[in-house]
Amino acid sequence: MAEKVYAPGEPYKYQLLIKHILEMPLAFAPNQEIVYRDKVRLTYRTLNERIQRLANGLETIGVGPGDRVCIFDYDSHRYLECFFAVPMMGAIMHTQNWRLSPEQILYTMNHAEDKIVLIHQDFVPLLEAIRDKLTTVKKVILITDDGNRPTTKVPFDGEYEEMLAASAPVYDFPDLDENTQATIFYTTGTTGLPKGVHFSHRQLVLHAQALLLATGSYSSIGRCQSSDVYMPITPMFHVHAWGFPWAATMLGVKQVYPGRYEPAMLLKLILTERVTFSHCVPTIIQMLVSSPAAKQYDLSFWKVIIGGARLTKGLALEAMKLGIQIFAAYGMSETCPLLTAANLKPWMLNNSMEENADTLVKTGLPAPLVYVRLKDPQGRDVPHDGVATGEVCVRAPWLTESYYKDPDRSQELWTDGWLHTGDVGLIDTEGYLQVTDRIKDVIKTGGEWISSLELENIMSGHEAVMEAAAIGLPDAKWGERPFLVAALKPDYVGKVTGEELRQFILKASEAGKIPKYGVPDRVEIVETIPKTSVGKINKVALRKTYII
To answer: Active site includes 347?
Structure first.
């Protein structure tokens, strides 16, 4: 594409584009490694060439500006290449949640109007089941680790590595308008149809910069800097792996992509590649810290951000015992996702990790450029006294501006110029936000509100409990009564009763942690607690099980 000729005195209007992120590591650390499992090792220089080959290959099969390219893959170097090539050529990357039901996958692909599909061989059966109902897909490119093609009725128009090998190594990425749409993906709610959220180049670049400021610039624990080794343990389809692949690339850090999540492989990569910085949902860190193998190693070099669900104090302390630097952050699909992070203030830095645990598990302080307000049902601001609660309402330059092709729900999302998260929280006198519940999950008993998340946090403090979930059950007298289910650590199965766990919560109530009416009438011990497609506790499923 010919470069624009500027008249004398006409300033260059710099656009915040994803392609500028890629230029930084090529100057700073071109020979730094990017690793995929124990299979592939690249450098940033090689990554850049592969990104250009991918863009040429996609253009050859018909991808143009504004076209949707749907990705089904595990966390991999290929996915990282798509994070750059697809939006940089002016197309739109649709990160597909392959954990959705076939019906939901079909809906999202038709709703997004996907034109091209890049799909790992493991997910081909999902596509095969719905291929006759897809309305806009024109071509499918197979992704394999070994080059072998599965037996399937899906007609492939090429294989990923073969397409790159056949494509030119140079592509002239255009100077787009920074407000050009770059990505789309769909929320993973447990009720109703998935909602499409979308982000522009400008939003994603600003978000990457804010991530680096929030996780690297303040004196606190868990800092992410250019000497780190980054490995996501959050699927790359889930809010762009929280935006960290772009931020990590901006820093030029060594990146490690684990592919399919397998505990043994994750631990192997952490140890052999010396991974120092990761992010995940609580269920993943619970799985790792509960592994007998993890207890054999020093993990004090590993820093982990927890998001997607509340980081309980009990789980944080378990991680700290292994030396892991762990802290919470908060956001949602609609917010790209960063809103807050549990950074420590200067006067806290001389405390031990354990002494700071109550702060590190909080939802956190607003990230740079983020504004947070708490509003009551009448839209009035709620005081920041650590007691009063309200709906968390936010502003930042990277929030989705609407739900894709859904004006009614977009209007509900953006009321009075603030994005309404649907979360209830409080802000203490130090300015730390603590989300106490989803509005729909608050337990209302006798006219009073009980936080299901606080009940779960208290329950996590019992030495036998691996994880817990609280919901409200209908009650003729009180409206609702709190009810907990708890999954036990393997060594305690059959040795602890539900009543013992209830008594533990009662003691917490007597110590003033929760009011007495918040003590559940019973706690039921279960083998497992149901999860959503992104690893959050599925309270809709729990209600279907226990509410008759």
So the answer is: no
pLDDT tens column, 287-319: 888 888 888 899 999 999 999 888 999 999 999
Give me the catalytic one of 133, 444, 507, 544.
Answer: 444
- Signed CA dihedral, 517, 523, 529, 535: sign only: positive
* Nearest Cα residue to 53 out of 169, 137, 145, 180: 169
> Out of 95, 108, 183, 187, which one is annotated catalytic?
187
For 15-44, letters b (16+ CB in 10 Å) and e give bbbbbebbeebeeebeebbbbbbeeeebbb
Q: Exactly one of 43, 59, 449, 489 is catalytic; name it.
A: 449
Q: Which residues of 505-523 are buried (b: 16+ CB within 10 A; e: fewer)?
A: beebeeeeebeeebbbeeb
Instruction: State the Cα angle at 536 between 532 and 540, rounded to 5°.
Output: 60
Tally: H helices and E strands in the chain: 16, 25
DSSP secondary structure code for residue 333 in this structure:
G
**Sequential DSSP letters for 369-411:** T-EEEEE-TTSPBPP-SSS--EEEEEE-TTS--SBTT-HHHHH
Task: Name the catalytic one among 81, 178, 318, 334.
Answer: 334
Tell me the C-alpha distance between 62 and 527, whole Å.
50
> Which residue bears the tokens 């509003």?
375
3 is catalytic: no
Ordered structural domains, the chain, with CATH: 18-198 (3.40.50.12780), 201-439 (3.40.50.12780), 442-546 (3.30.300.30)
* Dist. CA 141–CA 120, nearest whole Å: 9
Q: Could you give the C-alpha distances from 75 to 34, 42, 331, 403, 503, in angstroms and in order?
A: 12, 15, 21, 26, 43
The partner residues of 141 in beta bridges, in order of sequence, read: 118
283 part of the active site:
no
Query: Alpha carbon of 526 to those of 464, 465, 466, 486, 548: distances in Å?
Result: 13, 11, 11, 6, 18
449 is catalytic: yes
Question: How far does Cα 210 stand from its chain's mean position?
Answer: 16
Condensed to tens digits (0 to 9), the pLDDT of residues 421-435 reads 999 999 999 999 999
pLDDT in tens, 192-207: 789 999 999 999 999 9
